[in-house]
Amino acid sequence: MSTDQPDRSQHLVMAHQTDDSTASSTERYVFTPPIDIFETDDGLMLRADLPGVSLESLELQIQDNRLTLFGRVETVLPEDAVPLHREFEVGDFLRSFILSDEVDYDRITARLSRGVLEVELPRAEQPEPRRIQVNAD
Amino acid sequence: MAVFRLGQSWDPLRDLEREVDRFLQRVNLTFHGVRPGRKYPAVNVHESASEYILTAELPATAPEELELTIANGVLTMTGNRRDEVEIPEERFRRQERPRGTWQRSLPLPERIQEDQLSADFHNGVLVVRLPKAPQEEPRQIPITSD
């Protein structure tokens, strides 16, 4: 499995809100979350730090051989809050991975706990060698 | 300072580089791209009309391994980033997530109600609310004369 290289130029995306009353656009940050990938007895496991992402705001998708995770982070602050001291920006998380053939796509499972997404990528069963009967005329 | 360079730059790309440079300098690089494994979790402090709100991103932290203490106007946070199942090093193919214990101390603003402090830890995000102490009523000092 390989990961897409983060493309810095895409980290700030413009999310255009097409609201009837206010045609405004809001800037949202999109971050590449840090991940771990390691081997398990059954295949591979992927862990991604997604603080602030809930089960409802997480999208995990497989298209062809690309696994994409997108986690939306809602602010926990009241509207009138003004920053006094800022060390990190709040933004959404996006990252995609190219899965190899060794992964059994149909058995991929995932769970989210304590702001960490765990995706289990089981190894595809190697088909048993099959004997082909040769018939003579 | 140039923080972003394409290997072989030619003129049409120079504008892009400058744009990217300007963009990267405006924001703190530390928090961009793959957020690198910082030993100390980043903390934001906001102020609303009624309270100060401290937020920190602490994924992979068990609530029982996060400790907040308050003494002499200093809030001290101690925590441990650790996965429930530890994985032997040789099994990793890629390792970007920070782990381990950390401690941070932050001086608190004056005039907060220390006993009213509340903390909520949800989805790996810590939110500490520090309600402001009410303004003291002006007190009339009686003046006596002979």
Can you describe this structure?
The complex is a heterodimer of chains A (137) and B (146). With 137 residues, chain A is mainly beta. Chain A has no helices and 11 strands. Chain A starts with a strand and ends in a 15-residue tail after the last strand. Mean pLDDT of chain A is 82; it is low at 4-25. In chain B, the strands form 2 sheets. In chain B, strands 1-2-8-7 form a 4-stranded antiparallel sheet, with no helix packed on it. Chain B has 146 residues and is mainly β. In chain B, strand 7 (118-122) and strand 8 (125-131) form a beta hairpin. Chain B contains 1 helix and 8 strands; from the N terminus they run H-E-E-E-E-E-E-E-E. Classes of the chains: A mainly beta (137), B mainly beta (146). Strand 4 of chain A pairs antiparallel with strand 5 of chain B, so a sheet runs across the interface.
Short overview:
The complex is a heterodimer of chains A (137) and B (146). By secondary structure, chain A is mostly beta strands.
The proportion of residues forming helix of chain A, as a percent range, comes to: under 10%
Most residues in contact: chain pair? A-B, 44 and 44 residues
CATH class category name of the domain at 2-13 and 27-75 and 89-122 in chain A? Mainly Beta
Assess the beta-strand content of chain B as a share of residues: 25-35%
For the biggest sheet of chain B, the summary is: 4 strands, antiparallel
Structural class of chain A, please?
mainly beta
Number of DSSP-assigned strands of chain A? 11
Distance between the termini of chain A: 48 Å
Largest sheet of chain A: 6 strands, mixed
Percent of residues of chain A in beta strands? over 45%
Share of helix of chain B, binned: 10-25%
Instruction: Categorize the overall geometry of chain A.
Output: elongated
